[in-house]
Write a structure and sequence with these properties.
The structure holds 2 protein chains of 2 kinds. Chain A is of the alpha+beta class. Chain A has 10 helices and 20 strands. Chain A folds into 2 domains: 229 residues, P-loop containing nucleotide triphosphate hydrolases (Rossmann fold), CATH 3.40.50.300; 121 residues, RNA polymerase II/Efflux pump adaptor protein, barrel-sandwich hybrid domain (OB fold (Dihydrolipoamide Acetyltransferase, E2P)), CATH 2.40.50.100. Helices cover 26% and strands 36% of the residues of chain A. In chain A, helix 3 packs across helix 4 and helix 5 packs parallel to helix 6. The mean pLDDT of chain B is 91. Classes of the chains: A alpha+beta, B mainly alpha.
């Protein structure tokens, strides 16, 4: 990990609205050149955190450090705000040309017009909107407008960029193209960024680290792989797409493995634990394989269950197979697999999961659900 | 019918001969209503801005008061301004009753709520996050307010037109606090009222035409500013 000082560090941040706590962050930091994805359901506090970090919202308490220096209120906050950029879900363009929009941050800083011209031209180019320079911002498509907004944010050469669901109001192809452009620009500029999104795929694609938020708190933070495969609790597990979450009891321990009883069935997982412990098993749908016949004995590390297909539904480019194996189990398969295996609802199948693919959460706090 | 034709003929004669009295009255009308509008813009846009951008207890009440004020009857304003400026009234020491200054005061009081109300609506119809976006672009508070004014310039110019239109055509308060003194506090509307009551329809029509032309020209200029240079 990056051992130099973080670009931005937040400590004990508390934001209240109408007496209720909407944000309560013990510690959060962003390293130089890093893209952090903030994910969580609506109302989790993602936007509030971004606003608080950009000093656009008054916090009840908390300290923020920019490159190690406390950002005190007053002029400190103002000087700090000149080093950041923010992109909102709506493009929020000014009623003028695309060129003037991108120039706006530079004009605010009192830059000479020759310098402005050079910088604006460069950023028009970076975001592929040079041909729109003279167009009124009111006459842009959604994608063009958001490109202009991104170009405006990058043009001031910010030390850190906050993006608040920048793609959520765009159609999929536009979103796809814009995400590529953002990724490229973040890399080229070596930019440090924090992006809020409720779409975990966006975060997976762009972020170096992911912070999962719920009810105003960061419940887990780590590299995408870690958050996806080792969620700390049932909330994170379900939010990052773990379809099967089972409560069970640890009944047997072996060499580096243990066995969990779930609804009278035994599931083997890797790790250590104490017999009698109540645990939660998380099985991601892409880790479940389905076959028509029982798997051979060679695959001893596998958990194999006989089950019945309860429901087949489309999920994006995959099919979601919901099975009843004495406990509910969900798998994703491709359409060709679906055809090859001739799967239908009510078909009997065998589902297999490697012991290493089962993530076990111990002492899971009750998540209300 | 004769009355009207004769009146219009006479009116054009008065206009084309640049009658000094008529020109004097017109110029005074412009000066008084222009100054009053200017004052009301200053107070109205600032107040509208403050109310639009801040959340405080009693905000709804303030907004309703402003909206009520948009329909303030000029005679009521005239009445209260007169009472306040009366010799032994609270502001009697100013000794400005029956002067153009009193008329500016009364007209400014009429125009301010109109300008405030429209400014308030103009700023409120801007996207909620726009203000945050401007600050995030590194703007000072003053720069932010200026950018917001520019973003809301179309409805704000409508506020100017409504404010000016309201006071240039207003007669009740002007007569009450100005006194319609010839060559001193006589404006287009008060003169029209007086000439009509005297049966001098020709002069009254001439004054009426000037009033209409004035309103048209001023609004045409403001509309020109409002609609110009919108990028295509």
């Amino acid at each position: 990990m990056n051992m130099e000082q973080p670009v931005l560090a937040v400590k004990n941040l508390l934001v209240k609205r109408g007496g209720a706590t909407v944000l309560d962050i013990d510690a959060f930091s962003v390293n130089r050149g890093e893209v952090v994805g903030l994910i969580g359901p609506n109302g989790a506090g993602k936007s509030t955190l971004l606003l608080a970090m950009s000093k656009l919202l008054k916090a009840k308490r908390g300290n923020m450090y920019f490159k190690g220096n406390d950002i005190e209120s007053g002029n400190g906050a103002f000087a700090y705000r000149r080093m950041l950029s923010m992109v909102f879900q709506e493009p929020l363009l000014f009623d003028t040309t695309v060129y003037n929009n991108i120039a706006s941050g530079l004009k605010i800083r009192g830059m000479a017009s020759s310098g402005i011209r050079k910088t604006v031209m460069e950023h028009l180019n970076r975001f592929g909107i040079s041909h729109l320079a003279k167009r009124s911002a009111r006459k842009l498509s959604g994608g063009e407008a958001q490109r202009t907004s991104l170009a405006r944010a990058f043009a001031t050469g910010p030390e850190i960029i906050f993006l608040d669901e920048p793609f959520s109001s765009l159609d999929p192809p536009t979103r796809e193209a814009l995400m590529d452009d953002l990724q490229r620009n973040l890399q080229e500029a070596g930019a440090t960024a924090v992006m809020a999104t409720h779409d975990q795929m966006e975060a997976l694609r762009l972020a170096d680290r992911i912070a999962v938020m719920n009810q105003g708190r960061i419940v887990q933070m780590g590299p995408p792989e870690e958050v996806i495969n080792q969620p700390v609790d049932e909330f994170v597990a379900s939010f990052v797409g773990t379809e099967t979450i089972l409560r069970g009891k640890l009944i047997k321990t072996g060499e580096g493995t243990f066995t969990i009883a779930v609804s009278g069935h035994e599931i083997e997982a890797v790790g250590t634990g104490q017999i009698g412990e109540t645990v939660v098993c998380c099985i991601r749908p892409e880790h479940v394989t389905i076959s028509a016949n029982p798997p051979g004995s060679a695959t001893s590390s596998r958990n194999s269950f006989r089950g019945r297909i309860v429901k087949i539904s489309r999920s994006g480019f995959f099919y979601k197979i919901s099975m009843d194996c004495g406990f509910p189990l969900v798998a994703y398969i491709t359409s060709s697999s679906l055809e090859n295996l001739m799967l239908k609802e009510e078909t009997q199948v065998f589902a297999a999961v490697k012991a290493t693919a089962i993530h076990v959460i111990k002492h899971s706090p009750s998540m209300g659900s | 019918m004769d009355l009207i034709f004769e009146g219009i003929k006479q009116a054009f004669f008065l206009l084309l001969s640049f009658d000094r009295e008529v020109i004097g009255i017109t110029w005074l009308s412009l000066k008084i209503s222009g100054t009053a509008t200017f004052v009301s813009l200053f107070i109205g846009i600032s107040t509208g801005m403050v109310v639009a951008l801040n959340d405080f207890p009693g905000r709804r009440l303030v907004v309703s008061l402003i909206n009520t004020g948009m329909g303030l009857p000029p005679v009521v304003v005239g009445l209260f301004v007169t009472i306040f400026l009366w010799r032994n009234g609270p502001l009697g020491f100013l000794e400005i009753l029956y002067t153009p200054a009193a008329m500016i005061l009364a007209q400014a009081i009429i125009a301010t709520p109109i300008v405030t109300g429209i400014s308030l609506a103009a700023i409120q119809q801007l996207p909620r996050n726009l203000r945050l976006q401007i600050l995030a672009l590194g703007a000072t508070r003053i720069q932010m307010v200026w950018i917001l004014v520019k973003e809301a310039k179309l409805p704000l110019l409508a506020a100017v037109m409504a404010g000016f239109g309201g006071v240039i055509s207003e007669v009740g308060a002007s007569i009450m606090v100005g006194g319609n003194i010839k060559g001193y506090s006589r404006v287009l509307t008060t003169a029209t009222v007086m000439e009509t009551s005297r049966g001098n329809f020709d002069i009254a029509i001439a004054l009426g035409i000037i009033l209409l032309l004035l309103a048209f020209v001023i609004n045409a200029i403001l509309t020109g500013i409002q609609q110009r240079e919108r990028p295509r």
